[in-house]
TrEMBL record:
<dbReference type="InterPro" id="IPR006311">
    <property type="entry name" value="TAT_signal"/>
</dbReference>
<dbReference type="GO" id="GO:0035312">
    <property type="term" value="F:5'-3' DNA exonuclease activity"/>
</dbReference>
<feature type="domain" description="Polymerase/histidinol phosphatase N-terminal">
    <location>
        <begin position="67"/>
        <end position="142"/>
    </location>
</feature>
<feature type="compositionally biased region" description="Gly residues">
    <location>
        <begin position="252"/>
        <end position="263"/>
    </location>
</feature>
<dbReference type="InterPro" id="IPR003141">
    <property type="entry name" value="Pol/His_phosphatase_N"/>
</dbReference>
<feature type="region of interest" description="Disordered">
    <location>
        <begin position="249"/>
        <end position="268"/>
    </location>
</feature>
<dbReference type="InterPro" id="IPR052018">
    <property type="entry name" value="PHP_domain"/>
</dbReference>
<dbReference type="GO" id="GO:0004534">
    <property type="term" value="F:5'-3' RNA exonuclease activity"/>
</dbReference>
<dbReference type="InterPro" id="IPR016195">
    <property type="entry name" value="Pol/histidinol_Pase-like"/>
</dbReference>
<protein>
    <recommendedName>
        <fullName>Polymerase/histidinol phosphatase N-terminal domain-containing protein</fullName>
    </recommendedName>
</protein>
């Protein structure tokens, strides 16, 4: 772990900015902290933070687009929305991009793929400011679920169908976690890579969905899928959808869990996960929320592994739409359900466990151009941060040493003995979220750990030496921009650094880590977090 030595209190503020290359004209309200929260320094910087900060954060290169990569429609065996209705909801809640990911299923492959494609093309014509994809929720052989999407132009449906027929466990009978089934999943990823090389598809992206909900994808499976085609299997849902399932329910209606994480190990679960892995923590998967846990063990290898968040929309809490009654076997015969009916009555009981796209969970991607290609490239590059309940409007994260810099998903290359400074900036929320209040960002943390190379144990799920190296408590005012910095002095070994934030309402007793969500008693708006993807620091 590189030494952690921050600037001392009383450092000359303008001198620091000159050394960092971040000098700008004076203007409004950005606290910049060089030390622990009690020693935060208030500086008045220009609203645009100066040309060099713009370069550090990539403001001259990236625009940040809100999206959702895990959404279901009437073409899923367990959902009801029309594609056009999803597009309406996505835009209403501020989404710039969305991926339709109906479940792999024999009836879906037989009857739904082309119809979904036609509905998406029609919705795209009506919603030209929304980037829409046709993807699928892949039943991964030997595991559970993953989002898959790519571009294939006029051949989109044909290529999705070809993949589904050959590699979905519902169609191939390959659900159990056997070595042969795990090998088929790797073969599927290699097929995607071969199709991309042959230019039959463009920029495929695979994200492991709700990874620890049922404990059915082992660490060695994650590593095998990631390593089979770097750049295609880009990461996992750091937080699952179905966050509204945690709301307290009326007596007798059953208790739900955020993300559906109210389970215990089953016959297909990997036995190496502890019982605690089957719960969410501040709405986030155990693998993400645990400092020095599974996510950090993957980052410690120095290989990309990004996190996302999404709605997993099937039935959205508070919606007045209901699915019409149909005879048994209707979906199996038709591959779709009839359009939903508006009752005018808000629905809150199961199965209404989801939020609409971008209503609560947001995946924010830094793109070089507002296009399908731009979003795919940004996701693959890891320029991604995720947020619940509008906890912050913007998050910026960069690291620099000398004239070199990197932002989320990037690599900073330095010489041994150099200093590395990390800067985090957030724009605080200024409008009420779905819970009726303006959320308050109470704390930002920097998490860092050593990069130790490929794991000798492919089932490793810990990263020793990873810890929270600095926390910052911004003074809160709606819409204010806040920032802080931290310097790693005289770095000797490679490391990674990432950021997270919280509303500070729930922690483990006596600590700052997120606490386990209580089944049936977890209002998601009362425990909000955000996470940024890491920066890798290579030392030569």
């Amino acid at each position: 772990m590189p030494p952690v030595n921050s600037e001392k209190p009383g450092v000359d503020r303008r001198g620091f900015l000159k050394r960092a290359g971040l000098v700008s004209a004076a203007a409004a309200g950005v606290p910049l902290a060089a030390t622990a929260p009690a020693e935060a320094l208030d500086l008045n910087l220009d609203l645009d933070l100066g040309i060099d900060l713009s370069r550090l954060f990539g403001r001259d290169r990236y625009q940040w687009l809100v999206g959702d990569h895990h959404i279901h429609t009437q073409y899923s065996y367990d959902a009801m929305y029309t594609v056009d209705g999803i597009a309406d909801d996505a835009r209403r809640h501020g989404a710039d991009w969305a991926v339709i990911t109906d479940h792999g299923h024999a009836s879906h492959e037989k009857s739904s793929v082309e119809r979904t494609n036609a509905a998406i093309r029609a919705a795209q014509r009506e919603h030209r400011d929304l980037l829409l994809w046709q993807g699928m929720e892949w039943n991964v052989p030997g595991a559970e679920h993953a989002t898959l999407f790519f571009q294939a132009g006029a051949n989109q449906s044909a290529k999705l169908r070809e993949f589904e027929r050959a590699f979905d466990w519902r169609l191939t009978g390959t659900e159990p976690g056997t070595p042969d089934n795990e090998a088929l999943a790797v073969k599927a990823i290699r097929w995607l890579a071969a199709e991309e090389r042959a230019r039959r598809i463009h920029a495929p992206v695979v994200v492991i969905n709700h990874p620890l909900r049922n404990g059915r994808i082992a660490p060695h499976e994650i590593r095998a899928l990631r390593d089979a085609a770097p750049g295609i299997v880009i990461g996992m849902e750091g937080a699952p959808g179905a966050q509204a399932d945690g709301f307290p329910k009326p007596l007798g209606s059953g208790g739900g869990a955020r993300g559906g994480y109210g389970n215990s190990p089953g016959s297909n679960s990997w036995p190496g996960f502890p019982e605690s892995a089957y719960r969410t923590y501040g709405g986030f998967d155990w693998s993400t929320a645990t400092v020095g846990g599974l996510w950090d063990s993957l980052l410690a290898e120095g290989k990309p592994w990004w996190i996302t968040s999404n709605s997993d929309s099937h039935y959205n809490r508070g919606d007045t739409l209901v699915r019409p009654g149909v005879p048994d076997g209707y979906y199996d015969e038709h591959g779709a359900y009839p359009d939903p009916i508006d009752t005018g009555v808000p629905q809150t009981l199961p199965p209404y466990a989801d939020f609409a796209p971008a209503e609560f969970s947001r995946t924010v991607v830094g793109v070089t151009r507002r296009s399908h290609e731009g979003v795919l490239e940004g996701l693959r590059a890891g320029r991604v941060w995720v947020v619940h309940g509008g906890l912050a409007q913007e998050l910026e994260f960069g690291a620099y040493s000398g004239w070199s810099s990197a932002t989320m998903g990037g690599r900073l290359r330095v010489r041994r003995g150099d200093d590395v400074t990390v800067v985090v900036s957030a724009k605080l929320a200024s409008r009420p979220n779905g819970g009726g209040a303006i959320p308050r960002l109470a704390r930002l943390d920097l998490v860092s750990g050593p990069m130790t190379g490929p794991a000798a144990d492919r089932d490793a799920q810990t990263a020793p030496g990873t810890r929270v190296v600095r926390s910052f408590e911004p003074r809160w005012a709606p819409g204010r921009r806040v920032a802080f910095r931290h310097t790693f002095r005289n770095v000797r070994e490679p490391f990674f650094v990432r950021t997270r934030g919280t509303d500070g309402k729930k922690h483990v007793p006596g600590g700052i880590e997120p606490s386990a969500d209580v089944i049936g008693q977890s209002n998601p708006f009362e425990d909000l977090w955000l996470y940024g993807n890491p920066i890798f620091v290579d030392v030569r």
